[in-house]
Design goal:
alpha+beta, 8-stranded antiparallel beta sheet, 21 strands, binds zinc ion
Length: 625
């Protein structure tokens, strides 16, 4: 780590429209925008769940879909700036306002059945969805209506819960009330919007409850002695959602101990539960020490939920902005390029015949050992018109929004680039000039990133560039002059002139990762091997003719081959010689298994003998992206 490996100031998200990218990231966002966020019938269907008590029958979570999609839609709009998307979101917001009862209550539960099951959780999402849209809403009249509605919805909840009233944790029979406690985030946001102390008091009440009934998870995080998988409740994304709220609470109150708790928690999740594809949970949707369990054959079935991936990316964004710690930029990059992009159903494969339009835009679970994508629709609920939706399909867009919004950030003294995507950044400088950074790169397919700056007027400011933690020998040039760089933030402070160039090179040899090195207890498990190249998990797939995932493998040398050798669209392809003869091919995790019918695997059973640490690398022979 170099001296500047941690930025001390609170980073901020630039204005909507600051990022303009092309390439696989942008294509994925446009795919989601076109097929999901612009689907008027989908918005209408989600809003319609609130016109009668659709969740009473099974105490379900039909109530979460609208708000999840609105939050993701507003975040994606900040990136794409699509007028069509804006119109759709505005119309969806207006439609939702129509669902308010006389006292402002909006719920998919009747008054007789309210505050059970997932009711508070669903209200949380309606609040969040409206709050996110409020932030981009250009119509002052509509903003006032939204704020009135937010107040009325919250006040209805405040009338029922709090000191001397009902206990918010008892407003659900699931997860000891963890889901209901995640109401914290929209309540703090509402305080930020209104300045009304009753909302901050209520947020303080939620924090005081500690998240769940049998323990106080906020205090557990502050004490920093247990990993989240050791807490009494381990439901992963509900818990991360509570900690996102806790950071907002700490920001609003200035109570430093709570931000420390969130940072402790995020580090513990990263070090104990995040896998090499950037998700968590090998026991369906639970924290379970997946750092170790990811290569444990005992853990079979659905794992690595997309809701977990997305909420982890959002938490990474929060903590990255708050602490400036670049490990959370590294983590977000890994989740984006593996688990999240892998979950996009680019092949429009029908997994559930009741899906609206026949298919869902996001897959719910990502395999790590031999298994197929598309195993199940997570959070599946049948809606009133006999179509289904799922929790992960509804949340996915927010993952892309989080990545875009945190790709380049503002610092008090300049700008910071955290994700390298081909395209142009347009940012204000501390001196009030306009800075454009053109990034020319195929990273992480290619290891070179070329930045060209244009400024209206020469100005001295700091440009911070994230040097990924996995990069052993980063190389950096400023206008052809070599600059020393270590992992972490590289701070370039100079008088920047129009046309200045920065070139980055992050050499990414293929690394053999042994499951025996995953930590205490790993040596007792059957040995597995995985291949990482930079942030990308290389993945075996039965889509490659002859690739056999059934037995143990002994990998020899690795070379890169043209992507045209893949019978599917891949970003990179590698071929390993097997010591017993034959070969095995790998592609990037996000590209494999998209037909939902072929096994893929990141972790391969092996003998456990030491693998070669160096790799042979062929000439790059890459498809033009
Ligand atoms: Zn989900």
């Amino acid at each position: 780590m170099n001296m500047n490996s941690r930025l001390t100031a609170d980073l901020s998200i630039p204005a909507p429209g600051s990022w303009s990218y092309s390439g696989p990231f942008d294509r994925a966002v446009r795919f989601i925008q076109r097929h999901q966020l612009l689907d008027a019938s989908l918005w209408a269907r989600f809003a319609r769940q609130f016109t009668r008590p659709s969740d009473d029958q099974d105490l379900g979570w039909r109530c979460e879909y609208w708000g999840k999609l609105m939050r993701g839609g507003a975040m994606v709009w900040c990136y794409t700036q699509s007028p069509e998307l804006y119109r759709q979101l505005e119309s969806a917001a207006r439609e939702m306002l129509q669902n308010a009862e006389a006292d402002g209550r909006i719920s998919t539960y009747s008054r007789e059945a309210e505050f059970q099951g997932w009711d508070v959780w669903g209200r949380k999402y309606v609040l969040l969805g409206m709050e996110y849209f409020y932030n981009i809403c250009a119509d002052e009249g509509l903003k006032a209506e939204l704020l009135d509605s937010l107040r009325a919805q919250a006040d209805y909840i405040l009338a029922h819960f709090g000191p001397g009233k009902a206990d918010l944790r008892e407003a659900s029979c699931h997860w000891e009330g963890l889901n209901s406690s995640s109401l914290l985030e929209p309540i703090v946001r509402l305080y930020n919007m209104t300045g009304e102390g009753k909302y901050l008091d209520f947020a303080g009440y939620i924090v005081g409850l500690g998240g769940i009934q049998p323990a106080n998870i906020f205090e557990l995080a502050l004490e920093d002695e247990l990993d989240p998988w050791q807490y009494p409740v381990t439901k992963a994304y509900e818990m991360m959602s509570c900690f996102e709220g806790l950071l907002e609470y700490s920001r609003a109150t200035g109570e430093e101990k709570w931000s420390r708790a969130v940072v402790n928690f995020a580090h513990r999740v990263l070090n104990s539960d995040i896998t090499i594809i950037g998700s968590a949970g090998c026991t369906h949707e639970l924290f379970d020490h997946s750092r170790l369990r990811q290569a444990d054959p005992e853990f079979t079935g659905i794992m690595q939920e997309t809701c977990v991936t997305v909420t982890w990316m959002k938490l990474c964004g929060q903590v990255l902005r708050f602490t400036g710690d670049p490990v959370f930029g590294d983590a977000m990059e890994r989740s984006l390029h593996n688990a999240l992009l892998g979950a996009v159903n680019t092949g429009k494969v029908p997994r559930d015949l009741l899906s609206p339009g026949g298919w869902l835009p996001f897959d719910s679970y990502s395999p790590l050992r031999a298994g197929c994508r598309g195993q199940a629709v997570g959070g599946r609920m049948v809606m009133t018109d006999n179509t289904i939706y799922g929790c992960c399909a509804a949340i996915g867009a927010a993952g892309f929004g989080a990545a875009a919004l945190h790709s380049a950030l503002l610092t008090p003294t300049g700008a910071a680039v955290s994700l390298y995507l081909h395209g142009t950044l347009s940012l204000p400088t501390p001196g009030g000039n306009r800075l454009e950074i053109r990034m020319d790169t195929k990273y992480p397919v290619d290891e070179n990133i070329n930045l060209e700056l244009s400024v209206d007027m020469s100005e001295k400011f700091e440009l911070d560039l994230r040097i990924p933690g996995w990069c052993k020998v980063p190389k950096v040039w400023v206008n052809d002059e070599s600059v020393h760089a270590d992992t972490g933030w590289l701070r370039l402070e100079r008088l920047w002139k129009d046309g200045d160039r920065v070139s980055l090179q992050f050499p990414m040899p293929v690394e053999f990762i042994s499951s025996m090195e995953l930590g205490e207890g790993s040596e007792e498990l059957p040995p597995h091997v995985a291949l990482m190249r930079g942030p990308i998990a290389l993945t075996v797939s039965e889509e490659f003719p002859g690739d056999d995932l059934s037995g143990t493998v002994e990998l020899g040398s690795i070379r890169q081959t043209p992507v045209s050798e893949a019978p599917f669209e891949a970003r990179m392809v590698f071929e390993a010689e097997l010591k017993n003869g034959g070969r095995m091919r790998f592609a990037d995790y996000a590209s494999v298994g998209k037909g939902y019918d072929k096994n893929i695997a990141v972790w391969l059973p092996c003998s456990g003998e030491k693998e070669p640490s160096t790799t042979e690398r062929a000439e790059h022979s890459l498809r033009k992206e």
